[in-house]
Amino acid sequence: MIEITQEIAGRLASISVVETAKDMDRVYEWLERASTLAVDTETTGLDIFSPGFRIRTLQFGVGLDAWVIPLEKFDCDRDIVAAVLQDRRLVFQNASYDVLAIRKYYGLELDWENIADTKILAHLCDPRPFREGGVGHSLQELTAHYLDPEVATEVKGSMSRLSRESGLKKAELFAGIDVWNRDYLRYAGMDAVLTYGVWRSLEARLAEMQATIPEFNPSLVRYEHEVARVCAEMEWNGFRVDPAYAERLSAQLQEEQDLWEWLAEDEFGVDSVNSTDQVASAVLEAGYRLNELTDSGKYRVDKKVLADLSEQGLVLADYVTAAKAAKKRRSSWVDKFLEGRDENDRNHASIQPLAARTARMSITGIPAQTLPSGDWEIRRCFIPEDGNVIVSCDYQAQELRVLAALSGDKNMQRAFAEGADLHQITADASGVDRKVGKTVNFAYVYGSGAGNIASTCDISVAKAREVISGFERTYPGVKRLSDSLQAQAKQRGYIVTPTGRVLPVDKDRPYAALNYMIQSTSRDITASALLRLDEDGFGPYLRLPIHDEVVAEVPEEFASYGAKEIAQVMQCEFRG
């Protein structure tokens, strides 16, 4: 048995590292007295579904006592993991990762009813990321705030230090470091100690919020764990990639990129369309003007500038735009789909159920939320299993409907009830076209000002202010809601959503309160729909949540029925 100690906040943590099968007897004896464990794993990498993925160590503990088992050194490692983890209350930091890793590598399914995730608890306590003035949600950030900033830097930062010293990337370091390396074992064991300590601190903070903020809803704790469970199941399901099609599309996009880059060089001498200096120089030499500078003092040749130059007849702008678009479509999407597929040609999206301050979800791996909505060629990379079809259901004008419900504005509610064109109503109120009216409707929700509206719609700032005033006259209830939320934010520093979620609002940005309220409430409507779908047996068919949309895969003979049932389950009434 290897014994390692680590001081934390003036106390001594003890890490016991199992070396032999005989040492396991002490582990099992200790476990007889432990009903709740903080648990963590060290693996060969973050991509659970990649070839060669394996779990290297299992660490767990209570209070200041932790154990580390180098699983790769034991033949009966699956039995060990089962004996330690099953039928106990388990505390994880970012539970979805470890739960899926254990399921993938050992075939063991853990019961989410017995799981507490400190990342979820931290988001409910303070949803702001560290860069926005919050506590943060990583174990290092939480350790620094709640336990010991020195340990957060020295222990949690030790792998980054070893990475720099060895010249290896962190992924390479974790995959290949000697499992008996004491710094590695200290890092592993302290993860259990820190997770347990952070968990106790977060539980205390949640109790304090319940006592001091009457609107705070403690049932959000269980609710968010259920949402995480359903999202983890979608990650596990994955989405099938059509490799033959994707490879052809990648080659086609490479050819397009090469053609546009060749034309830019042949006709204008630009051998790199990504070089701001070269493109700007070629534009000026061609007799066109550039009027805007970047912060570094260079001419601005971004997408908007290129679009303006294209309208003026400069074909170089078209070449540069087309070359960049082809490269982005290929490298950011198609090639990533091919690189990320598992042995069964499936991509497994990483779904973060609590990503933004408002709890809005994010997806990586399959960046469904950023895929071009009108670009069928990219989406065609994903196909159903044989005999299945893909179905999709979304909420119509979700955020504006939520705004109508929360504000109680009679005009907006009547427009929805009668099926009237909300965007045209806003446009008519100020004598602008429907496109401007639509922009203002959403801009008001997002807290965007007259300057941004003017730039987007190519109108004057004065006209943008006029249209905003027209919106507020047409929907006075919305203005009252916005003013009320701003007043709450200024007085309390936060607002509370209808689900009982506490959302801090920055002192210098009280106008963001309305956007936070709408976005967070909309997210919870979609998240609640996911739970209802799972409860009704649709869990195995779900593939992705995309903002207000749910994508599923169902047997072809039940496609029409399945789509209608999914829509019916998703449908709900919110404040009328």
The percent range for strand residues is 5-15%
Large-scale geometry: globular
> Largest sheet, order of strands side by side?
1-2-5-4-3-6-7
Q: Which stretches are poorly predicted, pLDDT < 50 over at least 5 residues?
A: none
**Overall mean pLDDT:** 92
Share of helical residues: 40-55%
Question: Radius of gyration over alpha carbons?
Answer: 27 Å
> How would you classify the helix and strand content by structural class?
alpha+beta
Give the termini distance in whole angstroms: 64 Å
Main sheet? 7 strands, mixed
Counting DSSP E segments of at least 2 residues, the number of strands comes to 16
Number of helices: 24
Folded structure, characterized:
This protein has helices at residues 23-31, 77-85, 95-106, 118-125, 139-146, 149-154, 158-166, 170-176, 182-212, 220-237, 243-268, 276-285, 303-311, 315-339, 376-379, 398-407, 410-418, 422-430, 434-446, 450-457, 461-474, 476-492, 512-535, 559-570; strands spanning 2-8, 11-17, 36-43, 55-62, 65-69, 89-92, 115-117, 239-240, 346-347, 350-352, 362-364, 388-394, 494-496, 502-504, 542-546, 549-555. The chain has 576 residues and is α+β, with helices and mostly antiparallel strands. It has a seven-stranded mixed β-sheet, with helices on both faces. The chain is globular. The relative contact order is 0.08.
